[in-house]
Amino acid sequence: MKLGICRAGLPALICMASHAAPSWVEAPALSVPPAELLKAAAGMPVLPQYIAAELLLDLGVTLDEAGRRSLRYHYIYRVDQEAAIQGLGTVSAGWSTWFEEKPVIRARVITPDGVEHLLDPATLGESQPQVKDADMFSDRKGLRGPLPSLVKGALVEVEITQREFRVFSAAGNRGSL
């Protein structure tokens, strides 16, 4: 049996029922008190076929006057099975050095007892992905680090910000959302 992440998150369920998102959904990343997020997560069922349950997935995209793209990923999930600790125990982001700034990663783990554990930026390491073809060259880099104090029942909140310092293409943008 393949285990995945339940994406039928609480905001979707609440929005369908009341047509208004809870206040924590609109709050800036990592600003909602731990007790409030734990209370919101307590209202979501634990489904045995999923290793984690997603409470929030938010992607913001902006283009400046020169056409440079900025992305902001903000997501929150609950760890529902021990298997999630190994599979979801790190946070990462990649970038191309010729036109993108190094990403900024912020994260916290809220353990079931309500204690907040912030990601220490010093634990993030840079890497260059392995290329299978010896004739292929890339400027891609990765930034990756371990989430602190991850246990079953914990909430993980992550914000990744990525910015271009050079326009990828004058004819338009690249990638997909």
Query: What's the multimeric state?
Result: single chain
Please tell me what the overall shape is.
globular
Treating each run of at least 4 consecutive H or I residues as one helix, how many helices?
4
Low-confidence stretches: 8-19
Helix content: 10-25%
Q: Tally of extended strands?
A: 9
Spatial gap, N to C terminus: 29 Å
Strand fraction equals 35-45%
Give the strand order of the largest sheet, numbering strands 1, 2, ... along the chain.
Answer: 1-2-3-9-5-6
**How is the main sheet built?**
6 strands, mixed
Question: Overall pLDDT, averaged?
Answer: 86
Order of helices and strands, N to C? Answer: EHHHEEHEEEEEE
SS-based structural class? alpha+beta
Radius of gyration: 18 Å
The gist of it:
This protein is an alpha+beta fold and 177 residues long.
Which helices and strands occur, and which strands form pairs?
Elements: E1 4-6, H1 10-18, H2 23-26, H3 34-42, E2 50-63, E3 69-79, H4 82-87, E4 90-96, E5 104-110, E6 116-118, E7 125-127, E8 140-146, E9 155-163
Parallel strand pairs: 1-2
Antiparallel strand pairs: 2-3, 3-9, 4-8, 5-6, 5-9, 7-8
Description:
With 177 residues, the chain is of the alpha+beta class. Helix content is 16%, strand content 36%. It has four helices and nine strands, in the order βαααββαββββββ. It has helices at residues 10-18, 23-26, 34-42, 82-87; strands spanning 4-6, 50-63, 69-79, 90-96, 104-110, 116-118, 125-127, 140-146, 155-163. It has a six-stranded mixed β-sheet. A three-stranded antiparallel β-sheet has the order 4-8-7, with no helix packed on it. A hairpin with a 5-residue loop joins strand 5 and strand 6 (116-118). It starts with a strand and ends in a 14-residue tail after the last strand.
